[in-house]
Amino acid sequence: MAHLKLTLGGIPLYAPEITVLGALVFFVLSRKKMASPVGIDRVIWWSATLFLFGAGLTFFLNPWSLTGLGMLKSWFVFPFLFGWLVLQMCRTPQRERLVKETALAVLTLIALRSLYLAITGEMTYDGRLSGDYSSPNFLAFLMVFGLALTFGLFEKRLSRGLCRFSLLFVVCMLGGTLLLTRSYGAILSVALVALGWGLWYARHSLLRIMMVILLLSGTLGTWFLLEGGSDKWQSLVTLSERSSFASREMIWRSAWHIARENPFGIGVGRFQDEYLSSQAFFPPFLEWAVPEPHNLVLAVFFAVGPIGLLGFLILLGRIIALLFQAQRSTSQWPHQWLLVYWALFLLMGLLDTPLFKTDLSYLFALMLALSLSPITKKLPEELSE
User: Fold this and answer.
1) Quick count: other Cβ atoms within 10 Å of Cβ 227?
2) Is the pTM above the cut of 0.90?
3) DSSP code at position 14
4) Which of 10, 245, 318, 349 has the highest CB neighbour count under 10 A?
5) How many whole angstroms separate alpha carbon 270 and alpha carbon 242?
6) CB-hemisphere CA count at 13 Å for 94?
């Protein structure tokens, strides 16, 4: 579906972009009243502008190509348009819940499709599940978002058509798919955040604290028993030079060299070429196909430069701060699940790049919109609707 393409004025458009354009046309033709930007925090507006400006500036300051221009379109322009449309949808709690339920349904279908591929034996060469994606890590990122989303929907008054049993089924599908990706960074991030939130939730009861620790220990212990004999695990614990961490260390050293040589970034889609040029200085040559530097901050710096990175950090910091402020005034779940997701996003970003892929860019825009919804001030005419 993502590969469906048509050309408009010589510009190739893919399925997500066609959908976004169709939604924009619908809003214009139906004369729907767009949510006013006045209620959005100014710091968020300016930081998002810096982020997008940095992406364009860094692209044009470096050797650029039509492929890179297409990445700007697919990773920045259309995802942010999509995020703006989602923000329009989330003007009432009912619509916001519908957006979350739709996203969860799509992710559940992806998990079921991936599990079917696992049953039929379609795994990577090293026994990992990637589904229809080029990397198991991409599939893992989507499953982590789905798990956070089920947390947001698991409240006392559940959404229409959902019940606790169905959500439990979805958690099993998403969690099982995540484990089969064998993406250690994503799995460890989920475990750490689950432990942190569980201890905070049970902080007033020693019995609950013990139950949280035992449940998480049992789950991780079972996973260790199943994973402990694998080549990937053994190479990691024995500090083999072929382990995933050794590969990342090599990539980070090369990335640091590239950053010193290019203090204003290199533009989207150019890390692979720069890495291959500089990695020869850092033997042994462990990895050839490295489209991103396996670190969120480095990836953002290379793609959007120091200006864009500053905007990105301010944007996330401001959103998280406002969500914390909103959480203090209410015990509702929506704010908690959003904080849980951003904690997962940042933790995964220590070892990988949960961004700068078409699906992941749309996911980032979706999360920005869902995060802005509870912290955006509504104008009187919007509240009256």
Assistant:
1) 16
2) no
3) E
4) 349
5) 25
6) 2
Q: How many CB atoms lie within 10 A of CB 329?
A: 8
Question: And the tokens for 361?
Answer: 């860019």
DSSP tag of 74: I
Q: C-alpha 166: how far from its chain's center?
A: 24
Residue with tokens 């968020």: 44
pLDDT tens-digit map of 25-48: 887 777 555 555 546 788 998 999
Burial class (CB in 10 A: 0-12, 13-18, 19+), 372: buried
SS3 state of residue 6:
strand
Structure tokens at 288: 């050839």
CA distance 131 to 181: 9
Alpha helix (H) residue ranges in 154-243: 164-181, 184-201, 206-227, 231-237
Q: What DSSP string runs through 163-180? A: -HHHHHHHHHHHHHHHHH
| Phi, psi values for residue 8, rounded to 5° | -125, 110
In the chain, % of residues over pLDDT 90 = 32
Torsion of CA 164, 364, 314, 45, to 10 degrees: -100
For the stretch 305-325, pLDDT in tens is: 999 999 999 999 999 998 888
| Residue partners of 219: CB distance under 8 A and separation at least 6 | none
Rounded distance between C-alpha atoms, residue 228 and residue 242, angstroms: 17
pLDDT in tens, 118-152: 999 899 888 899 988 888 999 999 999 999 988 87
What is the chain's length?
385
User: What proportions of the chain, in percent to the nearest 5, are helix, strand and coil?
Assistant: 70, 0, 25
Write out the H or E segment, with its range, that includes residue 145: helix 136-153
Q: Residue 249's closest CA among 212, 284, 201, 204?
A: 284
Q: How would you classify residue 9: left for phi > 0, otherwise alpha for psi between -120 and 50, otherwise beta?
A: left
Q: Are residues 179 and 173 in contact, defined by beta-carbon separation less than 8 angstroms?
A: no
Amino acid 60 reads F
